[in-house]
């Protein structure tokens, strides 16, 4: 039996959970090394990922250390999806899957992330930035809506890693563009039905239960901020207070 893959993550971010959902769906053993976001830019994590972004994995079965969630997903599929549950052997379909994964990595993730930042986390409201990234996030959803017309999945006749790569960010679409959750896919019925098919999976539910537990252990809200903190300005002030308290403690005051 394979040894567990170690997944390094901070629990708030969507990208680590893309990997977890794929591992859950395939039944690949794993263990989570839950880190604080403040530790992402320093050792020991930067010894694994010099870019300082979660997630990264250590696979004791092959000795591989790997970062970038898309690359990790491709590796897990190639190494552990021997029954082709979430992929295809066919050349054309296989590359279509990678195409959609690249679109998730280059389109959905960055644009959703920027929309979420300027809507929720940035201490100053910059309407031009909010408008731009909200529009881009909706455009991404529109691309997916068209691709799903007349079918249930992005490629072929079954759910694949390409579909699963979108689910964690799509699940935050309401918070990303600041709309009511029940209305977040209004005008995008294909995306809505597709998303509901995936969030109804036992693998998704198990992953989100683990996320909730890890978030609670770190005293975090859904958006990664400490409980009681509402924006980046308040967060920075809290960090300054912590730094001052640590400095005072070091001096014995």
From TrEMBL:
CDD domains for this protein: GST_N_Ure2p_like (cd03048)
InterPro entries (UniProt xref): Glutathione-S-Trfase_C-like, Glutathione-S-Trfase_C_sf, Glutathione_S-Trfase, Glutathione_S-Trfase_N, GST_C, Thioredoxin-like_sf
Catalytic reaction equation(s): RX + glutathione = an S-substituted glutathione + a halide anion + H(+)
Domain GST N-terminal residues, every copy: 3-84
Enzyme type, top EC level: transferase
Protein family according to the UniProt entry: Belongs to the GST superfamily.
The protein's name in its UniProt record: glutathione transferase
The species this protein was found in: Clohesyomyces aquaticus
């Amino acid at each position: 039996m394979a040894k567990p893959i170690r997944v390094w993550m901070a629990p708030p971010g969507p990208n680590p959970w893309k990997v977890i959902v794929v591992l859950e769906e395939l039944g690949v053993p794993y263990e989570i090394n839950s880190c604080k976001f403040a530790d992402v830019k320093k050792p020991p994590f930067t010894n694994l990922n010099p870019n300082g972004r979660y997630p990264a994995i250590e696979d004791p079965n092959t000795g591989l250390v790997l970062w970038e969630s898309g690359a990790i997903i491709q590796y897990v599929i190639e190494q552990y999806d021997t029954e082709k549950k979430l992929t295809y052997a066919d050349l054309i379909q296989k590359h279509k899957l990678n195409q959609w994964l690249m679109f998730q990595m280059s389109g959905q993730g960055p644009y959703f992330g920027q929309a979420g930042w300027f809507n929720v986390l940035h201490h100053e409201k910059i309407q031009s930035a909010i408008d731009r990234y909200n529009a881009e996030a909706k455009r991404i959803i529109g691309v997916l809506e068209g691709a799903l017309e007349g079918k249930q999945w992005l490629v072929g006749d079954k759910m694949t890693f390409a579909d699963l790569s979108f689910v964690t960010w799509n699940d935050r679409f309401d918070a990303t563009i600041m709309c009511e959750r029940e209305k977040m896919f209004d005008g995008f019925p294909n995306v809505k039905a597709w998303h509901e098919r995936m969030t109804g999976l036992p693998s998704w539910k198990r992953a989100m239960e683990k996320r909730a537990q890890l978030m609670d252990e770190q005293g975090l809200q859904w958006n990664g901020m400490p409980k009681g903190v509402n924006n980046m300005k308040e967060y920075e002030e809290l960090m300054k207070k912590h730094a001052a308290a640590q400095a005072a403690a070091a001096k014995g005051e």
